[in-house]
Design brief:
The structure is a homodimer. By secondary structure, chain A is an all-alpha fold. Helix content of chain A is 72%, strand content 3%. The first copy, chain A, has a two-stranded antiparallel sheet with strand order 1-2. At the A-B interface, helix 6, helix 7, helix 8 and helix 9 of A face helix 6, helix 7, helix 8 and helix 9 of B. The structure holds a DNA duplex.
Chain lengths: 202, 202
DNA sequence: CCGCCGTTTGGACGAATGTCAAGATTTTCT
DNA sequence: AGAAAATCTTGACATTCGTCCAAACGGCGG
């Protein structure tokens, strides 16, 4: 038998997922509680039964987004045996993620930008950023090892550079620039060797 | 004597500048026409005398922001005579821009993100992005020349990487991370050599 | 002084927003 | 089955939003 609190949490998740779809469609600035409710089979009043206010709802959404995110990027490093194969696999993986769910990534950048204005989002956004940074660093480290070299940058530096490529690719992809994804893949592949240097003492 | 249209344009500029301050304070999502009017000595109704609607006002603001932006970054490349001096000068310049007006740069990222949702902003944002990309490319090219090398990446790639560093630095700076600016300067200095390789044929 | 015209005000409008509470409905427990 | 607790709907509230407009202001030529 299901526990009460579990059911409550389940419904919260369900509502948050619907909210994420609405947010991905419209962006933070244009998404109201009523539009969120229209993405569910419930009425708008229910949202205040499960969430204290809008900020708590959005915050919960961000956390939920994070779970999906880290889960998605969990595997992926393992299967390459040469540096360039790893770089290519990473490039393909990131490009696929971008192509598969561009609106979700757009939402991510929207929320991250909002966190620069709304203190309330900052902690959760920072946590997600950390997760992404670790994901990138795993790839860079693995690349360096396969190449018999060492990373010559910090994890946050590496993440910032990858993220710059990703964000630009998203922007161009949404503007229907056809080369956006190919350029991105190439950019990622070429970025790896820039971030390592031959190990000083082998 | 002043032309009529000049006076009209002047007031538009004045209102747009006030709007930019309001936008920098609150962000796109939270800035209403009435809050903008509060940043001026006029009443809210006036805004519709000088701008057809909110979108036209914001668009005009973005354009105005761009003018200030490109004007700011116009000079700066000239004065270095070694590669590392140029990299350091560029790093200091970018870091100073970030430190001087973090809220304006925050606004820029906000508007650029909005342009992923609002078609209306896309063209102007893209134009600004181009200007910034050219600014970065001038630096990379100059660095390569001083180093007797050649850039091994495209202009847009270079811009994406620098922009990634900048955006992360801004985020950390606004979260009052003390090392944000120093890390950024170092990141920029180290980025230059990553983007060039020895010229194949001297 | 009048009347013109560009400018500015302040209030009004309907629509949309976040929030709330009272009641209807469904589920759960005894 | 019936009571109690939960879930959900509905309508209302005070605000705020973008937009519009009638009226007032102000300088200037007649």
């Amino acid at each position: 038998m299901r526990r009460r609190v579990d059911k409550f949490e389940d419904r919260r998740r369900e509502l948050a997922d619907a909210a994420l779809l609405a947010l991905a469609d419209l962006g933070y600035a244009r998404t109201s509680l009523r539009t969120i409710a229209e993405h569910t089979k419930f009425s708008h009043g229910l949202l205040h039964y499960y969430f204290a206010d809008k900020v708590e709802l959005i915050t919960y959404c961000v956390r939920r987004y994070k779970e999906a995110c880290v889960q998605r990027y969990e595997g992926g490093v393992g299967a390459a045996d040469t540096p360039s194969a790893l770089a290519a696999a990473c490039a393909d993986g990131l490009a696929a993620a971008l192509e598969e769910a561009p609106l979700m990534h757009r939402l991510w950048y929207d929320l991250r930008t909002q966190s620069m204005f709304e203190e309330a989002f900052r902690a959760d956004v920072a946590e997600i950023d950390e997760g992404l940074q670790e994901m990138i660093w795993r790839n860079v480290s693995a690349y360096a090892e396969l190449a018999g070299a060492e990373p010559n940058c910090s994890p946050s530096e590496a993440y910032a550079l990858f993220d710059g490529l990703f964000q630009q690719a998203l922007l161009r992809h949404l503007s229907e620039t056809p080369e956006a994804l190919d350029d991105f893949r190439r950019g990622v592949r070429e970025l790896f060797p820039r971030l390592v240097s031959r190990a000083s003492a082998g």
